[in-house]
Amino acid sequence: MNRLAPLHPDAVGFSLFRLLPDGTGRTYTSVKFTDGWRGANHFLRQLRALGYVRNSSSAPDGHHVLDVLNVNGDVVQDYAIPPYPSEAIGYIKRRLKLRVAAGGGAR
Fold first, then answer.
1. How many domains does the chain fold into?
2. pTM score, whole prediction
3. Which residues of 26-50 are buried (b: 16+ CB within 10 A; e: fewer)?
4. Regions of the chain short of the pLDDT cut 70
5. Is residue 78 included in any domain, yes or no?
């Protein structure tokens, strides 16, 4: 079993990105935790315990990437969201209240 890479020290929030089979992408809104790194790390630990996140620098077509954001909203790290268990994406979107961003790609 591979260990999950530690959360970047500048992490304060997350967003999602999905690479679609046609080569386009879908972006989602982002969230920043009021308690910064501690809140982001706590959420990431929950995802790891549930099996909802893996190490990644890219995702296959049709899969989601959990982007790790710094205080400026820059992506400083990413994790893959596996397609199974299938409830992973719904859980993340629901808990973080993420929606497809305006102009974020096909729905």
1. 1
2. 0.88
3. bbbebbbbeeebebbbebbeebeee
4. 1-2, 57-62, 104-107
5. yes
